[in-house]
Design brief:
This protein is α/β, with parallel strands linked by helices and about 300 residues long. It has one domain (about 10-295): UDP-N-acetylmuramoyl-L-alanine:D-glutamate ligase. About 30% of the residues lie in helices and about 25% in strands. The protein has helices at about 45-60, 80-85, 150-165, 205-215, 250-265, 270-285, 290-295; strands at about 10, 15-25, 35-45, 65-70, 90-95, 105-110, 115-120, 145, 170-175, 190-195, 220-225, 225-230, 235-240.
């Protein structure tokens, strides 16, 4: 029996169904190709992060709880999403429980030789839920919150509530999204990609300055295989990313964020970033966003 206290994480944002194909290359116009392999999984930044957090937490902290807040609905396709998430002990808080329209579906082609991916998808733009739809009790006994920016009103409401309860808030800054500025004042950890540019920001230095001016104490910018730049209080630096041969980079950032949420509950900021980078790099050696976990358990 584990002596460690279970972790409880809350993840807010996009939930999709991802159909993922491994191919020699993405097709050109009017070309048909035959895939080498395929898989289907629930997707979205917050979703993949939640699965990673749940997997890591339950390895050494049985009975850990992971809640995922997003819009799924009642369409038959949604059952594929629910089935996948059930495999990883994810508790779903469905913001569109009575919606019969199909959930967003992503079609993804991964190039075998490089691990690069081409994606066609819909985000949550047409499924935005008002902030008052959430019950404040959702934050009860929660250790940390991650918000990916795809449900801004809900994200703002939850982040505000978390701040009031001294629950740390992490943002997945994959790209700047309209309304993100409403969430940022409540954020403790901003984990951004090199493509995250707030208004009037054109480079990493300006992003660090912008987020620091809001009062975010811990900021990191990732850029694929390049070192992770970070600013933590008056400390700054760079963390090397493990250089491994990638088979599939799909979801690497999401996995990084989920792993970060797990490690930041037990380590300082630079250590959590370094540990999360190891997990994400390891996951890139396997096809699809789940295989690295399945093989690790064998």
């Amino acid at each position: 029996m584990s002596l460690f206290k279970p972790f409880r994480g809350l993840f807010v944002g996009l939930i999709t169904l991802d159909t993922i194909y491994l191919a020699e290359s993405a097709p050109s116009n009017n070309q048909k190709i035959v895939a080498l392999d395929y898989t289907v999984a629930a997707g979205g930044p917050a979703t993949n992060a939640a699965v990673t957090f749940s997997y890591l937490s339950n390895q050494d902290r049985p009975s850990s709880v992971t809640k995922l807040v997003g819009a799924i609905g009642t369409h038959p396709i949604s059952q594929l999403i629910r089935s996948d998430l059930a495999n990883y002990q994810i508790q779903i808080v469905d913001l569109a429980a009575k919606n019969s329209e199909p959930p967003p579906i992503s079609s993804i082609i991964v190039t075998r030789s490089t691990g690069d991916r081409a994606v066609v998808s819909l985000n949550a733009k047409n499924r935005q839920i008002e902030g008052q739809a959430i019950d404040s009790s959702i934050l009860q006994d929660i250790d940390m919150v991650l918000i990916d920016g795809h449900q801004i009103a809900i994200g703002e409401a939850i982040a505000s509530g978390a701040k009031a309860k001294n629950i740390p808030v992490v943002i997945d800054g994959g790209s700047w999204k309209h309304g993100f500025q409403k969430v940022l004042p409540f954020v403790d950890y901003a984990i951004c990609s090199a493509n995250f540019f707030p208004p009037n920001c054109n480079n990493a230095a300006e992003v660090f300055a912008y987020l620091s001016s809001i009062g975010i104490p811990h900021i990191a910018i990732t850029e694929g295989k390049k070192p992770i730049k970070y600013l933590s209080g008056d400390r700054s630096g760079a963390i090397d990313v493990p250089q491994l041969q990638a088979l599939d980079t799909l979801g690497a950032g999401d996995i990084f964020h989920g792993a970060f949420c797990y490690y930041i509950l037990q380590a300082d900021f630079p250590q959590a970033l370094a540990s999360a980078a190891k997990i994400a790099s390891h996951a890139c050696q396997f096809f699809g966003p789940r295989q690295w976990m399945e093989i690790s358990n064998k």
